[in-house]
Design a protein that fits this description.
The complex is a heterodimer of chains A (113) and B (112). Chain A has 113 residues and is an all-beta fold. Chain A is 0% helix and 51% strand. In chain B, β6 and β7 (61-66) form a beta hairpin. Chain B is an all-beta fold and 112 residues long. In chain B, strands 2, 4, 5, 9, 10 and 11 form a six-stranded mixed sheet that branches. Chain B has a five-stranded antiparallel sheet with strand order 1-3-8-7-6, with no helix packed on it. Chain B has strands at residues 4-5, 11-14, 19-25, 30-38, 45-50, 54-58, 61-66, 71-76, 85-93, 100-102, 106-111. The chains are: A mainly beta (113), B mainly beta (112). Chain A binds chain B through residues 31, 33, 35, 40-45, 48, 50, 56, 58-59, 90, 97, 99-107, and chain B through 31-32, 34, 41-46, 49, 51, 88, 90, 92, 94, 97-105.
């Protein structure tokens, strides 16, 4: 089954404790991306990756890092989480950066206390 | 001005009616346009993509794109209670970047 997977699905952590949210896709997609979704603000793009050699900032990259060492994986790293990073996070992938539709993972609900 | 704007709703329509959802976008080089449906607490799922001016139909759904007026709309015919969800409009921009910009969504309620 073609899909995007994320882990963990739910995470409660404390301020400053480094965490990684994993994302993997099995569709051989070149383009991968991370979003956060907050009430009233909608989906906002954090980072995207055109391929294993190229990553770039989205609209809200502050406080996040990403890594694209393999085509199928695109982990999101919070080096020092803060309460304002409490949000619902989605990973997505697309055939490439040419304007194709994105397919979303199930989401990770993160709470930082 | 937001880059992609949608009325937050809720838009309430009776079962069997046509629901009309609208989205406007700012003056950037926009290439591709998408409508996603999102149920509460779930991930967005693609309904339609549209790339050129005009109408595109898929079952009960019709997407309409007018680049000159910078709007894209989604019509849902024969609305069902199961269509009750938030509908997200998304635009792929290519002006020196490869971002996707989402609207904040319109909440649709189909009344049985």
């Amino acid at each position: 089954e073609a899909q995007v997977t994320q882990n963990p699905r739910y995470l409660i952590t404390v301020t400053g404790k480094k965490l990684t949210v994993t994302c993997s896709q099995n569709m051989n997609h070149e383009y991968m991306s991370w979003y956060r979704q907050d009430p009233g603000l909608g989906l906002r793009q954090i980072y995207y990756s055109m391929n294993v050699e190229v990553t770039d900032k989205g609209d809200v990259p502050e406080g996040y890092k990403v890594s694209r060492k393999e085509k199928r994986n695109f982990p999101l790293i919070l080096e020092s989480p803060s309460p304002n990073q409490t949000s619902l996070y989605f990973c997505a992938s697309s055939r490439d950066g040419g304007g194709y539709e994105q397919y979303f993972g199930p989401g990770t609900r993160l709470t930082v206390t | 001005q937001k880059e992609v704007e949608q009325n937050s709703g809720p838009l309430s329509v009776p079962e069997g009616a046509i629901a009309s959802l609208n989205c406007t976008y700012s003056d950037r080089v926009s290439q591709s346009f998408f409508w996603y449906r999102q149920y509460s607490g779930k991930s967005p799922e693609l309904i339609m993509s549209i790339y050129s001016n005009g109408d595109k139909e898929d079952g009960r759904f019709t997407a309409q794109l007018n680049k000159a007026s910078q709007y894209v709309s989604l019509l849902i015919r024969d609305s069902q209670p199961s269509d009750s969800a938030t509908y997200l409009c998304a635009v792929k921009v290519t002006s020196g970047t490869y971002k996707y910009i989402f609207g904040t969504g319109t909440r649709l309620k189909v009344l049985a």
